[in-house]
Amino acid sequence: MNKTEFIKELTEKTGYDEEKCIVINSIIEDTFFVGVNNKEKMKAKLIEKMGVSEEEADKIYNSAMEIIARGMLNKMIHPFNKKDNKDN
């Protein structure tokens, strides 16, 4: 899944516009999402940069991680699937 696809899916899942989803994507890219305290760091950045509540930041985080996990799972199940190839 590329960045454009991720932002589009995040827009659909969260209901935020593309501009806000680009900010969310930037926060995710800046914070490594695996680790004990990284979820809290990411949520704190969402609260700070987007002005959302902790509950809303948690919903955004969970939605983004669900999209990422599904993309990784699809890649593991179908490692040779080339969605970007125009011949397929």
Would you give an account of this structure?
The chain has 88 residues and is mainly alpha-helical. Helix content is 70%, strand content 0%. The protein has four helices and no strands. Helix 1 packs across helix 4 (54-77) and helix 3 packs across helix 4. It is globular, with a radius of gyration of 14 Å.
Topology (elements, then pairings):
Blueprint: H1 3-14, H2 18-30, H3 38-50, H4 54-77
Q: What would the keywords be for this entry?
A:
single chain, 88 residues, mainly alpha
Could you provide a short overview of the structure?
By secondary structure, the protein is mainly α.
Please summarize the sheet with the most strands: none
Rg from Cα: 14 Å
Proportion of residues in helical segments: over 70%
- Unreliable spans: 84-88
* Overall 3D shape: globular
Distance between the termini: 16 Å
Average of pLDDT: 86
How much of the polypeptide forms β-strand, as a percent range? Answer: under 5%
What is the N-to-C succession of helices and strands?
HHHH
How many β-strand runs? 0
SS element count, helices: 4
From the helix content, strand content and strand pairing, which structural class follows?
mainly alpha
